[in-house]
Amino acid sequence: MVVQKKEGKMQQADLPPILVSTLDYERLSTLIARTPAAQFPGAAALEKELERATLLSPEAMPASVVTMHSTVKFAMQPSGEEFALTLCYPHETAGDAGKIAITAPMGSALLGLSVGQSIHWPTPGRQQVAVTVLDVIWQPEANGQLTM
């Protein structure tokens, strides 16, 4: 989410367009509704992302878009660090260093972005980081796994 401070208030600025599959939308909406706020402090931000997303059927999802269970290579600024992680639901991460939960701020930031897109996202320490998608290494929809 890109936010700008204007006269002491935070407001949303231009955001990159995002695509979310109807299946991911339904599952994430349920996750938000069922997860206590204390366990998912970024729920409101993810909900806003889902509200502004263009929804597509899983079969119509371009292979260059980050969906749930996609393995994505991305860079974070200002550090320049690059990571390749699989976007998962919280119960699927189980301490696996190669996975990132959708409930993590970086996980919510990645959902729906396409290769080459960037988004600014707040971290728990109230800092802003820029996340840029470099590659979608693997995506379930592109590989015919439409119900993961």
Quick summary:
This protein is α/β, with parallel strands linked by helices and 148 residues long.
What would you say this structure looks like, in words?
The chain is built from four helices and nine strands, in the order βββααβββαβαββ. By secondary structure, the protein is α/β, with parallel strands linked by helices. Helix 1 runs antiparallel to helix 2. The N terminus is likely disordered. It has a single domain, classed as Chitinase A, domain 3 (Roll).
Describe the protein's topology.
Blueprint: E1 3-6, E2 9-12, E3 19-21, H1 22-34, H2 43-52, E4 54-56, E5 71-77, E6 82-88, H3 90-93, E7 99-101, H4 105-110, E8 118-122, E9 128-138
Parallel strand pairs: 3-4, 6-7
Antiparallel strand pairs: 1-2, 5-6, 5-9, 8-9
Question: How many alpha or pi helices?
Answer: 4
* CA-based shape: globular
Q: Based on the coordinates given, report the CATH architecture.
A: Roll
Give the biggest beta sheet. 5 strands, mixed
Termini separation: 26 Å
The tally of domains stands at 1
Top-tier CATH class: Alpha Beta
Superfamily (CATH H level) name = Transcription elongation factor, GreA/GreB, C-terminal domain
Let me know the number of strands: 9
Which secondary-structure class do the elements indicate?
A: alpha/beta
Order of helices and strands: EEEHHEEEHEHEE
